[in-house]
Amino acid sequence: MDEDGINDDDDDDFYTPYWGSMRSAEGAGNNWYPKITEPQPAGVKLLRSGDFGKARNRLGRPRNSNIYSRLRRMALQPRAVNAAADLKHNLIPNTHGTAVAAYDSNIYVAQFSPDASFYYTCGQDFWMNVYDMKTSTKRDLSSNIPDINIRQYEDGHISTMNILKSFGVMGQWCITDSHLSSDNERIIYSSMSPTVFMAHTHDTSMTQTALQFGEEDSLWRSAIWSCKFSADGKEVFAGGPGPIYVYDLIANRRSMKISRAHSEDVNSVCWADTASGNVLISGSDDGFVKVWDRRSLGTAQRPSGVLVGHTEGITYVSSKGDGRYVISNGKDQALRLWDLRKMRSGEEQGLYLKPRVLAHPKDCSVMTYRGHAVLRTLIRCYFSPVEMTGGQYLYSGSYDGRIHIWSLDGTTVQTLDRSQTLPMACDPSAPEPDESIGRPLLRTGNNKTCVRDVSWHPQEPVLMSAGWAQNSRTRSTVARHEWKGLHRGGKLEDWVEKQRLEAAEMGGGDKSLY
After folding, report:
1. Which is higher by pLDDT, 438 or 118?
2. pLDDT at residue 512 above 50?
């Protein structure tokens, strides 16, 4: 096991991130818990509550419904509806992906900007790369120079994406977290030091501002594990080895410190909503997710409530942004959904021996989602984009090399396998190769991939994943996963044409739509 906590097998198989290799796939990890195949009552109630977009009549695994019929119904709709959300909420990325970047170090954070105008990565090599996602990455594969669109950048990584800005960053050991301001103008990043740095994303200036959260003479005791901008971009919320902090960017000073917020490292923090900025969420290796309301902290500095349910440490917390729903990933191999109105009081919190059971005896989570492996590193999880899906899906990376997507009702709606990711020689938007002919020859060969971070495009059924390759000379790759119609090998245009012909044969075709 190396310094990253990943077993690196000796592997002399030939591999390049462009052409891939011909390694055979290996088996997945153990499934420790019963698989959920039917919608769970608590999840069904959530879907029908209206808190997650338009309530769906049909629950369970989304079906590839007849797009022609849906378009026709919408055209005849007597009242205005959110057409984009109605069409897109079932369009879930369904391909194993195509590599679009490869690095010589592990990528710790990889996310779209809020408006998807750019995508950024930062890793253990202390480089921040911001890619321009407004320019097309499609290439002409008829060219005699097959790698004409592959670029090698200053830090040595290669990518088919266009760099907007690339710069070296400062810190200790590795970048533990990074976050964009809501206006996309600034980015912050933390490392195993008490200092968070802030840089600008668009201009050419390499100037960075240091935000001091702890004491310089205690680097390891004040390491920052997570940092997040407030919605208005005026504050930064951060978590360390037990304490949590808020930094006021206007006053240029730390405005809040709770020294004993948790008994162990605070691995992840987030703001509960995008409006007030009063409610803070923190998740720790002590197994608790805590809720802090700054309006009622007082001198006691106790949490407003505790979300109890995980039986091992928390790796990530993420908010829906409505001040009500939060999700968390835990080392007990569970993703849990919480309603802040159902939190336990701070007085109910107590130390306990962590049992090997499915849930804490005072579990107050609304739903639990399983099937992924939360091991070796702080695997991240998120709500699906509210604009596209109403937040009706949850998704997470996994140590087993898969991206898991669940419906709120508890069922798994999609599992994407990074061992089947295509190399950079392929076009991410092209039809998928035939499963029986093309894919075995084109697989990247990264059969042992740990997917640490994932990001769903805010307006399109596209997902990006950052994986650590455990048996390759390339340490980390980013893959682009798209939705490609009725099945992985089809195009949306082909699907719509098929529905038109079928409708015409039945005498019900509305040709005016075409």
Report:
1. 118
2. no
Tell me, what's the pLDDT at 339? 98
* Residue 481, SS3 per DSSP: strand
* DSSP β-ladder status, 175-180 and 279-284: unpaired
Q: What is the DSSP string of 312-356?
A: S-EEEEEE-BBSSEEEEEETTTEEEEEEGGGPBPGGG-------S
155/167 Cα distance (integer angstroms): 9
Q: What is the sign of the dihedral through the CA atoms of 177, 290, 312 and 396? A: negative
List the structure tokens of 25: 């796939």
Tell me, letter by letter, the H, E, C secondary structure of 365-387.
CCEEECCCCCCCCCCCEEECCHH
Residue ranges with strand state E in 201-324: 208-212, 226-229, 235-239, 244-248, 253-258, 266-271, 279-284, 289-293, 305-307, 314-319
Helix axes 492-505, 67-75, angle to 10 degrees: 80
Distance CA 461, CA 198 (A): 31
Question: Alpha-carbon distance 357 to 312, whole Å?
Answer: 10
Is 469 within 8 Å of 479 (Cβ atoms)?
A: no
pTM for this entry: 0.82
Count CB neighbours of 402 within 10 A. 26
Strands 476-482 and 98-103: antiparallel
Supply the DSSP symbol for 295: G
In 10 A of CB 136, how many CB atoms?
A: 8
Residue with tokens 């009706």: 392
Copy the structure tokens of residue 476.
């980390």
- Give the mean model confidence (pLDDT) for residues 193-204: 91
Q: pLDDT per residue over 228-263, tens digit each?
A: 999 999 999 999 999 999 999 999 999 999 999 999
- Written as six digits, the tokens of 73 are 């119904």
Mean pLDDT computed over 3-18? 41
Q: Are 198 and 206 in contact (CB under 8 A)?
A: no
Which candidate, 427, 424, 416, places its Cα nearest to that of 444?
424
Q: How far apart are CA 280 and CA 333, in angstroms?
A: 24
Alpha-helical runs (H) found in 193-278: none
Cβ contact 132:200 at 8 Å: no
Nearest to 398 by CA among 384, 420, 415, 421: 415
Pairing of strands 289-293, 305-307: antiparallel
- Asked whether 142 and 152 are in contact (CB, 8 A), the reply is no
Give the max Cα distance, the chain.
79
Q: β-pairing, 402-407 with 151-152?
A: unpaired
Choose among 168, 167, 169, 139: nearest CA to 151.
Answer: 139
